[in-house]
Amino acid sequence: MPIATVNPATGETVKTFDALSEDAVRDRLALAASAFATYRTTAFAHRAELLRRAADLLEEDQDAVARTITTEMGKPLAAAGAEVAKCVKTLRWYAQHAERLLADERPAPDDVADAGAANAFVRYRPMGPVLAVMPWNFPLWQVVRFAAPALMAGNVGLLKHASNVPQTALYLEELFRRAGFPAGVFQTLLVGSGAIEGILRDPRVVAATLTGSEPAGRSVASIAGDEIKKTVLELGGSDPYVVLPSADVRRAAQVAVSARTQNAGQSCIAAKRFIVHDAVYDEFTDAFVAGMRALRVGDPMDADTDVGPLSSESGRSDLEELVDDALRHGATALCGGGRPADRTAGWFYEPTVLAHISADMRIHQEEAFGPVASLYRVADLDEAVNLANDTSFGLSSNAWTRDEGEQERLIRDLAAGGVFFNGMTASHPALPFGGVKRSGYGRELAGHGIREFCNATTVWYGPPNG
């Protein structure tokens, strides 16, 4: 895939970029290793000062960065601006909290004595250069949620971004440079996917994090495993959205529209499978379908647009194949089901609701990366839980119920990295984020995320006269 900005609203190639040569990549890896040797010894206060400066600069650049994001991957301009604001917030959050999150952990005095020590504790130390392989769907946020904790921990970052968002990738390197981070602490590597193996096998790279598809995660994990290097993976999702009789059904349907169509449905944590109790199925369906039909599909630079184009022509083709397969096998399109008639250029797709889904349809198991919802009717909570878990993915989940007993049951039994009640899944710097099953492993954000790429070092002092 060429490294290029291609406007998904028009199909126009805006700008192309040359990939780094092998020699240039080696030079950058050497710079990363050299930077880590000194940056790892800097004080938390100094790192926090640099990160706050990055946040201030990003806030000043918000409008321009948002336009770049929209041009490169097609999300509505308002959503791109919100993504930038979230990154600013996260940079400041880690600048404020990182030192506390990585403070020495001290066992109880009795345990220290039982270990035969005069003193003992755990100290979190940085690991070194970490390779981040990042996707296009949240081109700024995905990187910042790695970079903010990694840099505050004393690591250095090497970004291999998706090939269709090169301008966003280069901006990120420039941002950290302008903020005052030393040369080599954060670098963007404009390379194709074929270069990842060589970078990851380089002994100067100590770990990797990837957000992306299951095949990409499997490839990176296998290479890292062969090299015995740590990885964190956030892969696909087919999140359930369970609606039970005690729910505020109208509100559940309203939020469901946003939960399915955020980022034109191109989000791993977007709700994709809507599992609705028979008692409220008709009410929910009527409101949900009406809400999906009311969405405005159009130019993502237009303030009135709700849903922009998909990011690529191949992405739309993949989505069309899933929907067509479902329709051939008996599914019903309650709305949408194809390309908008008034959009002849660009890679647009109508907000779609499919009912009568069965197990022989690909969409029952595969992730639909676009504004297509799968709707299911269930008889009771047991059937809802079983259907929610009938997937190889386990990223997050949503459930609408005001019954505390049902809530406890869902917390216990839903196989997912998160359970969100009476609202839609969202990420926040104070809460860990990640999945189970084929949605990956490890966690980003919060204290869990910053410690993923740290060496938890046991420190033990013997008795003075021992």
UniProtKB/TrEMBL annotation:
The keyword Oxidoreductase applies. Signal peptide: none annotated. Its EC number is 1.2.1.16, 1.2.1.20, 1.2.1.79. This is Succinate-semialdehyde dehydrogenase/glutarate-semialdehyde dehydrogenase. It comes from Streptomyces zagrosensis. It comes from the Bacteria. The lineage of its organism: Bacteria, Bacillati, Actinomycetota, Actinomycetes, Kitasatosporales. Keywords: NADP, Oxidoreductase. The keyword Transferase does not apply. Gene3D superfamilies: Aldehyde Dehydrogenase, Chain A, domain 1, Aldehyde Dehydrogenase, Chain A, domain 2.
